[in-house]
Amino acid sequence: MSNEPLSLSAALASFDALWSPRIVTRVNDYDVRVAKVSGEHLWHAHDDTDEFFLVLDGELHISLREPAGERTVRLPKGSVFTVPRGTEHKPYAPAGASLLLFEPTGTSTVGDRHDEVPSHVDATTGHTLEL
User: Fold this and answer.
1) Which helix (H) or strand (E) holds 10?
2) Do 50 and 84 meet the contact criterion of CB atoms below 8 Å apart?
């Protein structure tokens, strides 16, 4: 991690992999990650932590399985949303999106409970950003 300012545009331009977040900085015990996404992720849940999404570009949809039933939230550019801990969810971006994620260091991209991980999804706790 650098103690110099970092351009999120430069961070996003430094990699092409989809569903494979890069850690841009840390705040206390939390990673701030950026990711490029397109198509579908997978149904998963984080049992012990919320998951924060900020859409930097494009549009993200997140399907949620809640006690009242299933619903989908649509997040256009500039929108934020927090998936509560323990909630099964599946992000997808029909036309692609760039995201900023905020979650505890060591949090897996596929959560604690998940469907089979497809080959296009990187099951990781985040990669170090290399500029």
Assistant:
1) helix 8-13
2) yes
Per residue in 13-57, pLDDT (tens digit) is 999 999 999 999 999 999 999 999 999 999 999 999 999 999 999
At 116 the pLDDT is 85
120 Cα distance to chain centroid:
14
Taking the C-alpha atoms of residue 60 and residue 40, their distance in angstroms, rounded to an integer, is: 10
For 34-63, b/e burial (b = at least 16 CB within 10 A) is bbbbeebbbbbbbeebebbbbbbebebebb
Antiparallel, parallel or unpaired: β 30-40 and 44-45 = unpaired
Backbone φ, ψ for residue 18 (5° rounding): -90, 150
**Which pLDDT does position 53 carry in this prediction?**
98
Instruction: Give the distance, in angstroms, between the CA of residue 14 and the centroid of all CA atoms in the same chain.
Output: 17
Angle at CA of residue 31, ends 34 and 7, nearest 5°: 45
